[in-house]
Specification:
Number of helices of chain A: 15
Number of strands of chain B: 0
Order of helices and strands of chain B: HHHHHHHHH
Largest sheet of chain A: 5 strands, mixed
Oligomer: heterodimer
Number of helices of chain B: 9
Structural class of chain B: mainly alpha
Helix content of chain A: 55-70%
Structural class of chain A: alpha+beta
Distance between the termini of chain A: 129 Å
Distance between the termini of chain B: 35 Å
Strand order of the largest sheet of chain A: 1-3-5-2-4
C-alpha cells in the first residue's frame, strides 16, 4: 500500500470504521512512513480537538421561552373550538357538513308530513265524490292507484296506505252516489267487491298511517268555528254523505280553534264567497236511513269515530247550532263540481254572481281559487254568533 | 448523539394530533444537541440562542409535514443546519463590514497561557475560529461526525447524500481544518 492509497483511507482509519485487514495494512504503512505518520497524527489531533470542545448549555428556560412564543403566536381558541377540536381532528369536515344537512332535511320532512297527509286525503275524497262527467278525468289517477293497489298487494307500506285511502274514497263514493246523485258512480268502480269495502273501512281505521296522495286539486285550508269544542259528530254539513264528512273520518281534525288557523296561503283574500245553511237534522236522518249501502256507510262511520257510540245527543244539537267558516283551495276546472257538491250538501243562500272572469284569470295564472264558505246553522237552530 | 427515536415518534404523533405540550418534551430532549451544533457553526452564544429558537419554531410549524420516514432528530438536524448556514452567511457579511480585530490578528505568534486552563481555553477558541473559517459544508460534516459523533449513515441522511460522499467530504473537511490549525499547532510546538 502506498501513501496515496493510505491517504484515501486515513479518515476511516482514524474513525476505526475500516475492516480488520484494511486497518492492518494502513497501520503497517503509517508506522513505516514518516510522512503518513505525521499526516495521521495531525488529523487525529484535529478530530480530538473538535471532540474535546465542551458542551455548552442553552440559555436557562429555553424550552419555556419557545413554548411561550408558540402560545403567543397562535390565535386563542374559543371554548367551542376547544370542545370540538377532538371531533374535527378525526372526522373530515365534509362528512360532518353532509351529516348536518341530512339531519336537517329529515327533520323538515317529518315536520311537514302530517299536514301533507291531511291535505292529500281531503283532496282525494273530494274529487272522487263528484258525480259530474267532467270529473272522471280527475278520478282517473285515483282509480288507477286503487286498481294498482288491488293488483299488487305486496307494495310497500306507504303505497299500500295510499291504496287503502283511495279504496275508502271509492267505496264511500259509490255508497253516496246511489241515494243522492243519479249518476251512478258505481260505473267508476262497477264491480267493487265486498273485500274492498271491508278494506276501505279498515283503511279508514288506520288514521295514524295517513296515506300520501297524488297532486292536490281541492284543499280545505282553514276552519273557523265558534266557541264549542268538537263533540262526537264532526260533520261540517247536515248531510252525512258529503265529502266534508268523509274528510273528517279519513283524517280527523285536531281540536277546533276559536280563531282561524294559520294557513299556507297567508292573508290571501278569498276569490269567491259562499254562504250556505245547514240542512235540518231531520233531512239528515232521512238520508242516513236509506238502504243497505247507507247502513254500511253508517257502520263505517261508527267504526271510524270511536266516541260516536257514547255520543250525547246534546252534542249533535250544539254542533249544528253553530256557525262555521271554511276556506277551500279549488282548481278553476273543478269550481263547477265544487259548487254542485256544495249545493248537494247544504242550502246555498248566497253565491258569487260573476265568476267566469275570475276563473279564467285563475286558469291563466295557473293558480287555485280560494273559496270561502260560511256555514250557517240550520233554520230551526238558533245561531250562536 | 441522536436520541431514542421511538419515543420521539410518539410525541410527534401527539403533537400532530394537536397536543402542543408534547412539543415541550421534544424541545427538552434535543435542545442541548441542537444548541451545541448551532453554536459551533456560528461561534456566538447569542446568535446561537436566537437561531436555535427559530429552529424549534420552524419545526413546530412544519410538524404536519413530518411523515416519520426518518428519525425526528435527523429531521431536526436538517432544519438546524439550514438555519445555521443561513445565519452564518449573514454573520459573515456583518463581520466583513465591521472587521473585528481579533479575527485579523495572525496566529503565528500566540501568547502562551500562564496556566493550563488558560491554554485550554485558548485551544478551544482557536478550534472555534478554525471552524468559523471553514466552509459551511465542511464545518457541518465535521461537527456532525467529530463533535456529535453521528454515524456515517445518519450523516448521509441528514445531508441527503450517499455515505461515500460523506466520507470523501469528511476527509476534505479534516484536511481543511488541519490547515486552519496548522499554524497554531506549529507555533505551539515551537513554543513548547
Amino acid at each position: 500500500m502506498n501513501c496515496e492509497e493510505v491517504s484515501k483511507h486515513l479518515t476511516e482509519y482514524l474513525d476505526k470504521t475500516l475492516d480488520t485487514a484494511m486497518t492492518t495494512r494502513v497501520a503497517t504503512h503509517v508506522i513505516s512512513c514518516a510522512l503518513c505518520r505525521a499526516e495521521s497524527s495531525e488529523l487525529a489531533d484535529c478530530v480530538q480537538q473538535v471532540a474535546a470542545l465542551p458542551t455548552i448549555d442553552p440559555p436557562l428556560g429555553f424550552a419555556q421561552r419557545v413554548m411561550a412564543h408558540i402560545h403567543d403566536s397562535e390565535p386563542q381558541a374559543s371554548v367551542w373550538q376547544r370542545l370540538m377540536a377532538p371531533l374535527f381532528g378525526r372526522v373530515p369536515i365534509r362528512f360532518a357538513a353532509t351529516a348536518a344537512v341530512a339531519i336537517i332535511a329529515i327533520t323538515l320532512y317529518q315536520t311537514e308530513q302530517p299536514l301533507k297527509q291531511s291535505n292529500d286525503v281531503n283532496v282525494a275524497l273530494r274529487s272522487e265524490a263528484s258525480p259530474a262527467p267532467t270529473h272522471e278525468k280527475a278520478l282517473a289517477s285515483t282509480s288507477t292507484t286503487a286498481a294498482t293497489a288491488t293488483k299488487t298487494p305486496e307494495l310497500s307500506g306507504s303505497t299500500a296506505a295510499q291504496s287503502k285511502a283511495a279504496q275508502a274514497a271509492l267505496a264511500e263514493s259509490s255508497l253516496r252516489a246511489a241515494p243522492v246523485a243519479p249518476i251512478p258512480s258505481q260505473q267508476l268502480q262497477p264491480a267493487a267487491p265486498a273485500p274492498i269495502r271491508a278494506e276501505a273501512a279498515s283503511g279508514a281505521e288506520e288514521k295514524p298511517e295517513a296515506p300520501r296522495r297524488p297532486p292536490l286539486r281541492v284543499q280545505e285550508v282553514t276552519t273557523a268555528r265558534e266557541s264549542l269544542p268538537m263533540l262526537g259528530d264532526s260533520r261540517g254539513f247536515g248531510a252525512p254523505v258529503g265529502a266534508v264528512s268523509a274528510m273528517r273520518q279519513a283524517a280527523p281534525r285536531p281540536a277546533p280553534l276559536a280563531l282561524e288557523r294559520s294557513t299556507p296561503l297567508g292573508d290571501r283574500v278569498a276569490d269567491f264567497e259562499f254562504v250556505v245553511r245547514r240542512r235540518s237534522p231531520q233531512r239528515r236522518d232521512i238520508i242516513e236511513h236509506l238502504g243497505g249501502a247507507e247502513a254500511l256507510q253508517k257502520s263505517t262511520e261508527a267504526e271510524n269515530t270511536p266516541s260516536s257510540a257514547s255520543r250525547p245527543s246534546i252534542g249533535r244539537a250544539k254542533i249544528e247550532s253553530i256557525a262555521e267558516m271554511r276556506f277551500y283551495n279549488v282548481t278553476p276546472e273543478h269550481f263547477e263540481i265544487f259548487k254542485k257538491e256544495l249545493a248537494a250538501e247544504a242550502n246555498i243562500e248566497s253565491e258569487p254572481k260573476a265568476w267566469a272572469k275570475e276563473i279564467d284569470a285563475a286558469k291563466q295564472a295557473d293558480r287555485h281559487l280560494l273559496i270561502k264558505v260560511t256555514i250557517l246553522p240550520a233554520d230551526h237552530a238558533p245561531a250562536s254568533r | 448523539m441522536l436520541t431514542d427515536s421511538s419515543s420521539d415518534a410518539e410525541y410527534v404523533q401527539k403533537l400532530q394530533r394537536g397536543q402542543t405540550d408534547a412539543f415541550e418534551i421534544l424541545i427538552r430532549r434535543h435542545e442541548k444537541t441542537i444548541f451545541n451544533l448551532v453554536y459551533r457553526m456560528l461561534g456566538d452564544y447569542d446568535e446561537a440562542a436566537e437561531t436555535c429558537q427559530e429552529v424549534f419554531l420552524s419545526a413546530y410549524r412544519a410538524i404536519g409535514q413530518f411523515r416519520g420516514d426518518s428519525n425526528f432528530s435527523t429531521w431536526l438536524y436538517r432544519i438546524a443546519l439550514n438555519h445555521a448556514t443561513t445565519r452564518r452567511k449573514s454573520m459573515n457579511t456583518r463581520q466583513q463590514r465591521h472587521v473585528p480585530l481579533e479575527n485579523t490578528e495572525p496566529m503565528s505568534d500566540p501568547q502562551p497561557g500562564p496556566a493550563e486552563s488558560m491554554e485550554k481555553n485558548e485551544i478551544r477558541e482557536t478550534v472555534q475560529r478554525a471552524l468559523n473559517g471553514l466552509s459551511a459544508d465542511d464545518a457541518t460534516v465535521i461537527l456532525l461526525r467529530d463533535l456529535q459523533d453521528v454515524p456515517y449513515e445518519e450523516v448521509a441522511r441528514v445531508l441527503e447524500v450517499p455515505v461515500g460522499t460523506v466520507k470523501s467530504r469528511l476527509h476534505r473537511a479534516r484536511q481543511a481544518l488541519k490547515s486552519e490549525l496548522a499554524s497554531y499547532f506549529y507555533a505551539g510546538r515551537k513554543a513548547v
